[in-house]
């Protein structure tokens, strides 16, 4: 990623406001350009400096920044040197030459120059050198010379405007000295104070009103509301997102200025574009972390150490909007801050995969098989579960087809269940039995229609034709449950002539039991049903008990029997029913058959 890909802040057009201000400078008045630090005052004045007045004279801004100067000279001397550099340095050069000449004419250093230099020149140079020496020895601090010189109306001053930058940051002594200076220059040239008028010395007594002729505010295009509003539009267009009102309000209410925006944009470029995080994180949440990193380092340090916002920080800072944004649900992709904190930290590189990489896995059959059948990765599962119902998600059938293939091979996990179950929910209208009762519709008819839709779904999307297979995968992947078929009217039962033609006979028996609520009322079990169950082959019998829940998969330490190397145990919930005469009868049949299988 190169700098050419970075977000460039759009140039703000302030030409009209700058021209209007430049026109004001035709008059030798004192102005105060008001604005907070970093709000664009220097940018504004720079454009004014490049404009011509109506009288076609070039405006020459002479800027002095006492706050940045590391100069032992007095305020008057510094200003005079800036306004009249040729006069100032000419005078200093004359003094230096006089000192040098007086030294050269002494008996100690006599180069024989006295023959060529008139006596009056030597005498004058000596006097000047003596005055300077006395001045330096006594350390006289007097600006009388420069205050006198500043009252002269030098021709060079007529094309200049004196600008005192960062006036609000000067010390009280410097500001007091500046007031005296401006009284000397008043009416001789335009003078511009630059700073935040609300925080300068002596502002509370309205002292400045006696010095300042006009107070100038920055144009609205430089106001935080305008500059950030335009910038947010630029961000939304670049990252193809919609920023939340919470984030926008957070920035707007704090009146972050032009320099703040430039600083923020620099980190947006570095993190989201330079480090290519935009594909790995939620863009807005990354912006919130950047915002906290720049403007609330204390909060960021808490995030760095603890990965969350503590209650003490919430009480200390009134920026609840950012906390709301960072508390996004973990079931979205890319992962939110709460689920993948490290990726959002400044200068860190995310380890999760991009949407492009995840889509490539789905589109490649071998990779998808490997992903679904192996150890499920958190980024893949989150992407599937959060995107499955999106209208523009085009991979549902690919995921369903691969999941069903793995299920047929006996490979199963919760993501396979999720894919198959939710694929069915998209294609099948699930009944609302409470609503049906409200409108006096026959629930039996509703259930019959629903089961027909389930059967149609499997036949349309797989090669299943046997109804018992359809039941098996429907129950296995929670496409249907017991309540969907309670009191269903059907001719399918283990006592029907068609029973022998079904491939998974145990599923037909379970179907019959659930329809007639026999899983709740064991008194309904008769000898005929127990005989049908007992006549199942060993694998069918085990599958029946697993489907019914009488046994479950166990481990080697607790297994009561093994089939094909797999241990099984009787489920605890059925052990609790021991003592019920009806259940005991059923349990004896099951246990006797299990003993037979165990012996074999």
Automatic annotation (TrEMBL):
Keywords for the protein's UniProt record, in alphabetical order: Membrane, Transmembrane, Transmembrane helix
Q: What Gene3D superfamilies does the database record attribute to this sequence?
A: P-loop containing nucleotide triphosphate hydrolases (3.40.50.300)
A Pfam family name for this chain? Answer: KAP_NTPase
Which InterPro entries does the record cross-reference, listed alphabetically? KAP_P-loop, P-loop_NTPase
What parts of the sequence cross the membrane? Answer: 86-105, 117-138
* Residue span, KAP NTPase domain: 18-219
The protein's name in its UniProt record: P-loop NTPase fold protein
Source species: Streptococcus downii
